[in-house]
Amino acid sequence: MSNSISVTEDVSNREEDDGGLLSSGYVARANTGNNSRQQNLEIETLLTRERTPLSVIITSKTATMATPSKNQISLENERGSWSSKLDFILSVVGLAIGLGNVWRFPYLCYKNGGGAFLLPYFMTLILAGIPMFFMELALGQMLTIGGLGVFKIAPIFKGIGYAAAVMSCWMNVYYIVILAWAVFYFFMSMRSDVPWRSCNNSWNTENCVNPYARKDLLCWDEMINKSATKICSLVTGNITASELTDPVKEFWERRALQISSGIEEIGNIRYELAGTLLLVWIVCYFCIWKGVKWTGKVVYFTALFPYVLLTILLIRGITLPGAFEGIKFYVIPNFSKLTESEVWIDAVTQIFFSYGLGLGTLVALGSYNKFTNNVYKDALIVCSVNSSTSMFAGFVIFSVVGFMAHEQQRPISQVAASGPGLAFLVYPSAVLQLPGASLWSCLFFFMLLLIGLDSQFCTMEGFITAIIDEWPQLLRKRKEIFIAVVCVLSYLVGLSCISQGGMYVFQILDSYAVSGYCLLWLIFFECISISWCYGVDRFYDGIKDMIGYYPMVWWKFCWCITTPFICVGVFFFNIVQFTPVKYLDYNYPWWAHAFGIFTALSSMLYIPGYMVWLWKVTPGDTASKIRTIVRIDEDVKSLREKMQQETTKQAEIYSL
């Protein structure tokens, strides 16, 4: 009787486990026979593996079971996976819900027509945001590898992975600076009263007057240069109303930042901020140093507790006088704004940034899932939570903005702000009128820290995963050391943003290195690499293998048509409407803009550069090159098997 060996998978025994994830049953049968009688031995075993299971049916003279190599099991265990489905969902929620939900979305909603802004926002969400969110999570889970390795699915586009890694580096350097500012304000608020209430501090100027006290100033109108000018009388003399400053702004610029006159004057390192930046980097390191099993536990606090703080702040906010006037400005629609292209551009950039698209982070987080996890359902849940949080945060912020406008007797349009202006000017000014100002200030800045922290360390996790999966033999055993090196280098580069001229550097990185241009560029190529080059039908087959059914055809339409079209359209709109970045009234020198453009191109050029290089070094004629590096022949199942074989070989070599 001839001996034969075959490998098959028995998927009939799939069932739901406690975490809602599917595991697979595998049957191993061994038949033995001789001249006198036929013996049948059937061995059934259930193998539950963190990654790709191995199942074997063996027909042989001697009953044996083929098992995964120890090297392969060890390698997979070292890579890790989520302990539960909730760990994964909370981590993705923590990534997607960041500072942009709190300090940018409410302002964009007000600025672009209130409730009318929700129309372009949700249209973009349905046509591009959710489809790309789903694609990135599914891609990582499908191939069980980080943001560089996934482009084995379309090798010529691997430059997208490198571009995303570079952009993540810039993001890690500049985003965490905001958290350092928040920690500084948190510590400064831990006293009997907030230090920005009065003008009697060493950093205040003679023209400092609290905005809430200005109604008691003696002021009158005078004709100066044939125009009416408001003059106010201070102890130090008479000055124009435009020359008045307030203690909140002076604390921010003269105490926290100690800002210089321009980027040409970089000044000294702000050692207090250097200390808070170091503290945040240490916290970030210990949030990710043990891998996703540890990270999955940290996010139970960092992702959920901000909702408690937001709810507390909302309850306090809506009880303040003028709160409902602020909320009305936030939600009342102004449909005439929808004719302005800027409204639609703001909607697209807000969706892409707030959902963490294009950076390879979602791919990395998805790669730690079990292959049969229902990633489709997870994507829809997280997207719903993200957008709901943005709208909820708007009520929190504008209830306080309305109160400020009421107390200062100013229009809400003059009080509303976004970005650092909201976090470090508007809200600190608002707490001055609240009983227990220090408590509300501490709560607000602690909330900012938590909201930003999980976005920061999840982005770090995406970068770390991509690099380690690319060079596992070199880095996986030294993962903790590698993460420490990345954190130290990022901290040292970030010191440039907390010098006296650091705000100008921060603004350059924000406007160029991690701008909408870079993000739209990355997402466009990522989308077409899967939908057009690999093939949307084969990608759908891979999704069916994971979740057991085909998602609705709508996502195919979005991946092939609407998402690439939106990326291209908004990218060129941004170019046409480009205006050089400014910081308040300060105009940057030409070399600062040149540096900013360099930081943007440092990621963007990886994509075409890698395409040209790979095309030239790949042997064969045009047709064979296309089959090898543009539109490969393997389906998802074959590609996974090929990648598993490569992983096993690498593990065996590494163990020698």
How would you summarize this macromolecular structure in one to three sentences?
The chain is mainly α. It has helices at about 70-80, 85-95, 100-105, 105-110, 120-145, 160-190, 245-255, 270-290, 290-300, 305-320, 325-330, 340-355, 360-365, 375-410, 420-430, 435-470, 470-475, 480-495, 500-515, 515-545, 555-575, 590-605, 605-615, 620-630, 635-655; strands at about 5, 15, 20-25, 25-35, 40-45, 55-60, 220-225, 225-235, 235-240, 580-585, 585.
What's the helix and strand layout?
Layout (H helix, E strand, L loop, with lengths): L3 E3 L8 E2 L5 E2 L2 E8 L4 E8 L11 E3 L10 H10 L5 H12 L2 H5 L1 H7 L6 H26 L15 H30 L29 E7 L2 E8 L2 E4 L6 H10 L14 H18 L3 H11 L2 H14 L4 H9 L9 H14 L6 H7 L7 H34 L11 H11 L6 H34 L1 H4 L3 H16 L7 H12 L2 H32 L6 H23 L5 E2 L2 E2 L2 H15 L1 H12 L4 H9 L5 H20 L1
Antiparallel strand pairs: 1-6, 2-3, 4-5, 7-8, 8-9, 10-11
Task: Give a description of the structure.
It is a single chain. It contains 25 helices and 11 strands. The chain is mainly alpha-helical and 656 residues long. The protein has a 3-stranded antiparallel beta sheet with strand order 7-8-9, with no helix packed on it. Strands 1-6 form a two-stranded antiparallel sheet. It has a two-stranded antiparallel sheet with strand order 2-3. Helix 10 runs parallel beside helix 14 and helix 13 (361-367) packs across helix 16 (437-470). The longest helix is centred in the middle third of the chain and has 34 residues, at 375-408. The protein is elongated.
Kindly provide the name of the CATH class of the largest domain: Mainly Alpha
Number of helices: 25
Overall pLDDT score = 83
**Sheet having the most strands:** 3 strands, antiparallel
- Estimate the strand proportion: 5-15%
Query: How far is the first residue's CA from the last residue's CA?
Result: 38 Å
Radius of gyration: 28 Å
Kindly report the CATH topology of the largest domain. Answer: Amino acid/polyamine transporter I
CATH architect. name of the largest domain: Up-down Bundle
DSSP strand count: 11
Number of domains: 2
Uncertain ranges: 1-76
Q: Residue share in helices?
A: 55-70%
Spatial shape: elongated
- Class based on secondary structure composition and strand pairing: mainly alpha
Strand order of the largest sheet: 7-8-9
Pfam family, one: SNF
Binding site for Na(+): 94, 96, 101, 354, 386, 454-455
InterPro entries: Na/ntran_symport (IPR000175), SNS_sf (IPR037272)
Disulfide bonds: 199-208
